[in-house]
Amino acid sequence: MSTIKRKTAVKPSSQKDENNTGATAGSDQSESSKNISRILSSSVSGASSLVILQLISRLATFGLHQIVLRYTDPATFGIASVQLELLLATILFLSREGFRCALLRGEDDSIVVDCNNISKESKVLADSKKGSVQKITNLSYIPIPIGMITTFLACAFYLYYATEDTWNTPYYVTSVVLYGLSAFGELIIEPLYIAAMNNLIFKLRVSCEGIGVIVRCIITLALTLLGAQGNDEKYSNTFGILAFAVAQFVFTLIMMTGYIGYFVFKWDISLLMPRKLYDNKNKEFWLDAHLFSLAKTFTKQSLLKHILTEGDKMLIAWLSSPVDQGIYAFVVNYGMNEQRLLYTLY
């Protein structure tokens, strides 16, 4: 009888353990499904917002060019739309594109980060969840020193090899410097951009870029109209390319203010600082070899991609006069915007 009693006593306990295990597994599955649902909804919402942002940006830029063309000469429009835009694109593309491609892919457990649930221990293990996030954070700072070198070399090249017609353009040196500072300013907030995208904070990008594009158009238009007043010659403008340079610089300031303000007030900014990592053998390192190698590979590929994408501007800037560059920019803006709008919508 005692044996039967012991069996009877143990049996409910076993059933209770099985029930607890089943309940735990069920709660884990429920939490996992909620996370997947949240990620999918955020992705869909973010994709829709980015499409709207591209649409607004294209329409605003197209409308701005139609007005600005009436108050500026082709040479000014050509230098701003071809040479200076090429300078900005070259610095940004070569400095960050490869790292973006590598870091925005992420790993299985490091795409979405809950900053409230990550511990702040001084020693970060590379194989832990925080270590996976820290690998991305550390590497996201590399475009900044690369950008310093790229910005200096690109601006020096533009100033040293400028043609006589380009060099004699009013405010050319100032505009080149402002475009270089604008590019470097965007690289400074690159770690914040990587963190925002990996955490599906698409609204931050949409808000900052949307406001920046609108303000950039307003400043360009205002300075162009102001520079056109009091000039007897048709298409003559006092500010010229400086209007485009100042507007681009203000756009970068808005981007920096938006990203830095968001992460300072809504995040624990200490989680975005570079920190040492430790492997299983307690060996410390800063950069993950696999991610760094992947970023270098993408950077090499981005060089070819940049040549294929901006090759027409490179040839036009090298072989043509500023007036011809302005005509080319005018034709491209008229001919390509409709296709780009349709591509954005569909």
Automatic annotation (TrEMBL):
Reading the lineage from the top rank, the first entry is Eukaryota
Q: Name one GO biological process term.
A: glycolipid translocation
Compositionally biased tracts (Polar residues): 20-29
Under InterPro entries, the record lists: RFT1
Pathway assignment: Protein modification; protein glycosylation
List, alphabetically, the Pfam families matched. Rft-1
In the bilayer, the protein is annotated as: Multi-pass membrane protein
Which GO cellular component terms, listed alphabetically, does the Swiss-Prot or TrEMBL entry include? endoplasmic reticulum membrane
Where does the chain cross the membrane?
139-160, 172-194, 206-227, 239-265
Its annotated compartments are: Endoplasmic reticulum membrane
Report keywords, A-Z: Endoplasmic reticulum, Membrane, Transmembrane, Transmembrane helix, Transport
Chief localisation class:
endoplasmic reticulum
Span list, region Disordered = 1-30
Q: What does this protein do?
A: Intramembrane glycolipid transporter that operates in the biosynthetic pathway of dolichol-linked oligosaccharides, the glycan precursors employed in protein asparagine (N)-glycosylation. The sequential addition of sugars to dolichol pyrophosphate produces dolichol-linked oligosaccharides containing fourteen sugars, including two GlcNAcs, nine mannoses and three glucoses. Once assembled, the oligosaccharide is transferred from the lipid to nascent proteins by oligosaccharyltransferases.
The family line of this record is: Belongs to the RFT1 family.
What's this protein's name?
Man(5)GlcNAc(2)-PP-dolichol translocation protein RFT1
What is the organism field in this record?
A: Racocetra fulgida
